[in-house]
Amino acid sequence: VSDSIAVIIGAGGMGLAIARRLAPGRSILLADVNKDLLAEAVKSLGETGGPVASHLIDVSDADSVAALAAEAARLGAVTQLAHTAGLSPVQASAAAILRVDLLGVALVLDAFEKVMAPGGAGVVIASMAGHLMPLPPEQERALASTPTADLLDLPFLAPDVMSDPGMAYAVAKRANVLRVRASFAAWGARGARINSISPGVISTSMGEAELASSTGDVMRMMLDMSALKRKGTADDIAAAAAFLLGPDASYVTGTDLLVDGGVVAAVIGSQS
Ligand SMILES: NC(=O)c1ccc[n+]([C@@H]2O[C@H](COP(=O)([O-])OP(=O)(O)OC[C@H]3O[C@@H](n4cnc5c(N)ncnc54)[C@H](O)[C@@H]3O)[C@@H](O)[C@H]2O)c1
User: Fold this and answer.
1) Contacts for 272 with CB less than 8 Å, ≥ 6 apart
2) 238 CA to middle of ligand 1, Å?
3) Residue-wise DSSP of the chain
4) Rounded to 5 degrees, what angle do the CA atoms 198, 112, 70 make?
């Protein structure tokens, strides 16, 4: 593996699409909790670009995340990070969603802020769900600034309060945007940038499972209201990630890019 490494966490629909965009001429380190899916993804990427290494990881486990960051730094200069691993409301309980989508992102931001190369860039995949559910300001402040090890002890995240997976997902995804915004200084101190992307309804296995669930009708209604009236593709998200991870975004950090075909604009417009 050569000197400059792009780390992609999550080898699902978006992770693979981002890896395909970044792979030509670059070394990739791909990480996921699912061994079979990871092997499949590495095989398909091997046909398109430069060297691909893989690493099993559970993003909700601090030691596992630290081991990935150490492995990346051992392989070379970590110039790009795309964090795409996540669980959706049809896939998991509220508690598992908070561990993976909320704690997992905070752990990845902490671990990689220590290893990013100067001039490097990271992107975290949040969700439009985080834009559709405003939280009280004191909860937003707590999600942005509570030390990572104490995050899941916040009273409003307690299992008896936060038992609905859809609610847990929206809070976690809102937290992703807030944590990224709060990370700009630590990343900037290393000369690195960090941003998030909030996708709308995207046609990956996760997106299709949500569309097939009991919330599918609401999602279809939102797509009908939206400007572009279609689902997004994994490549729509990969294009945004390539921009944020590349030289054209060299003055963009600590912010969120909504890539949703206009769904949030339509929903918020219909409420005002
Ligand atoms: N698909 C959509 O419609 C949509 C919309 C908005 C946001 N998102 C977000 O985009 C991101 C990527 O989603 P996708 O559509 O590519 O989904 P996907 O299911 O195709 O990929 C997600 C990957 O995360 C991995 N993963 C799950 N738990 C993990 C853990 N504990 N540690 C490491 N890896 C783990 C899974 O194995 C899977 O490969 C997710 O964060 C998701 O919440 C998706």
Assistant:
1) none
2) 14
3) --SEEEEEE--SHHHHHHHHHH-TTSEEEEEES-HHHHHHHHHHHHTTSS-EEEEE--TT-HHHHHHHHHHHHHHSEEEEEEE-----TTTS-HHHHIIIIIIHHHHHHHHHHTTEEEEEEEEEE--THHHHS---HHHHHHHHHS-GGGGGG-GGGSTTTS--HHHHHHHHHHHHHHHHHHHHHHHHHTT-EEEEEEE-SB-SHHHHHHHTSTTHHHHHHHHHHSSS-S-B-HHHHHHHHHHHHSGGGTT--S-EEEESTTHHHHHHHHH-
4) 140
Instruction: Name the pTM for this structure.
Output: 0.97
Q: What percent of the chain has pLDDT over 70?
A: 99
Per the annotation, the verdict on 229 as an active-site residue is: no
**Does residue 92's CB lie within 6 angstroms of at least one atom of ligand 1?**
no
Rounded Cα distance between 21 and 80, Å, is 12
Number of the ligand 1 atom closest to the C-alpha atom of 100: 31
Known catalytic residue at 169 = yes
Each residue of 116-138: pLDDT tens digit?
Answer: 999 999 999 999 999 998 899 99
* CA-wise closest residue to 266 among 159, 128, 138, 100: 128
Question: Which residue of the set 35, 43, 114, 169 is catalytic?
Answer: 169
Q: Model confidence over 37-50: pLDDT tens digits?
A: 999 999 999 877 67
Q: Are 193 and 122 in contact (CB under 8 A)?
A: yes
CA distance 230 to 209: 16
User: Where do we find the tokens 């970590």?
Assistant: 78
β-bridge pairing 27-32 and 77-83: unpaired
Q: Which residue in 210, 178, 184, 182 sits closest to 86, CA to CA? A: 210
